[in-house]
Amino acid sequence: MRKIFISAILLTASLAIAQTPAMKFVFNGESKSGFAKVTPTTFYTEALGYGFEKESQTADKPPYYFSVRVPEEGNYKVTVTLGDGKSESDTTVKAELRRLMLEKVRLPAGKSETRTFIVNTRTVKIAGGGEVRLKDREKTTEAWAWDDKLTLEFTGPHPAIRSAEIEKADAKMPTLYIAGDSTSTDQPREPFNSWGQMITRFFRPDIAVANNGESGESLKGFIGEQRFAKVMSMIKPGDFLMIQMGHNDQKEKGDGVGAFTTYAADLKKFIDAARQHGATPILVTPVARLAWGKDAEANKIINNLGDYPAAVLKVGKEENVPVIDLNAMSKPFYEALGPADAHLAFAGSDTTHHDNYGGYELAKAIATAIRKQNLPLAKHLLDFPAFDPAHPDPVSAFDMPAEPRPPASGPAGASGQSDRPYGQ
Fold first, then answer.
1. Is the pTM of this model over 0.85?
2. Options 2.60.120.430, 3.40.1210.10, 3.40.1010.10, 3.90.550.10; CATH of 19-172
3. 60-73: pLDDT as tens digits
4. Angle formed by the axes of helices 308-319 and 264-276, to 10°?
5. What is the tens place of the pLDDT at every residue in 125-160?
6. Measuring CA to CA, which residue among 221, 153, 164, 154 is closest to residue 188?
7. Cα Rg for the chain, rounded, in angstroms?
8. Per the CATH hierarchy, to which homologous superfamily does domain 174-397 belong?
9. In terms of DSSP bridges, do strands 74-82 and 89-95 run parallel, antiparallel, or are they unpaired?
10. Which of 76, 182, 312, 354 is least buried, going by the fewest C-beta atoms within 10 A?
């Protein structure tokens, strides 16, 4: 009996070791002490705990999706060494659901470079009990945002990864949480994108970005689906909460429902809760839709978001909370492109949801506002050219590697419409 008992313990221990993923990896046939060797046919399995996702075109065509099971949700420090010993390389790195981490790292043949960035992971479980009520699409096309893995995407004309190391980030590292709708969420497929999944590129590896935005959300829905509870269960002193809603709140009906009533009251709930946790709230006005005026105003963007942008500004003033006026910045951005080309910042014929170019420019707009307003977040920003809405980066010069996975049917309210609140 004693031998059986001991054998059972040893078996359990060996299984636990086997199921604990190695957190250091070497690629391209290289060997390195303490690193797990990864080949193009090392596919992810639960038993192995790391490997390429089956969606990876590992034979000869990027992007390559590499996942590692992590022991718990939270922030992870990722250190990658890029470069090819035989040819020039050009690597863009994204994480989880297409969050831009490193942009176009170009290296000559024989050269390598090591970069570090921070990736936030999360699960549906809420500390203290309960869980986030996911939408059906979050269980399928957006599943990577909620699983127990950290997924890295290597893409570009010639992506070259030599090694990767993943470790838990310092528990004291600040986190920027984003509470938003589809215009800020991590969009899972081309041609959709958002400022929330592009803004990671503008921060130093001394802060994490936890994008908890989701398509179809309003402030009320964010609370009702336990997303607010999830954020509050994780947020800590020194963190930041960036709030951008309005597109779906605008569609809610009922007695007393409105921008300066229920919407403003819910904004104050978010602000109060963040402050109670020792975090800093930041409001963002809802990004403008692509809505052109008529006749003399044909080259001007009109406001079709009602009083919601104004309500954000009013609450910010009343509560002494910084406001990033993305609504005001996005209008001249579209106008600078003009009626003929503004659609190039949007996903297909959509007039609410952006593509890679639109998401990138709006992320730069927000990062620029953080710096200009000298917000506490500014010390975490990388150096980058300021965004001038009236003179955006030329569309022709924008170069973001495409991701040839099956295109998305679109977030709620695509094809030119705004989001629909969940359940309506």
1. yes
2. 2.60.120.430
3. 688 999 999 999 99
4. 40
5. 999 999 999 999 999 999 999 999 999 999 999 999
6. 153
7. 22
8. SGNH hydrolase (3.40.50.1110)
9. unpaired
10. 76
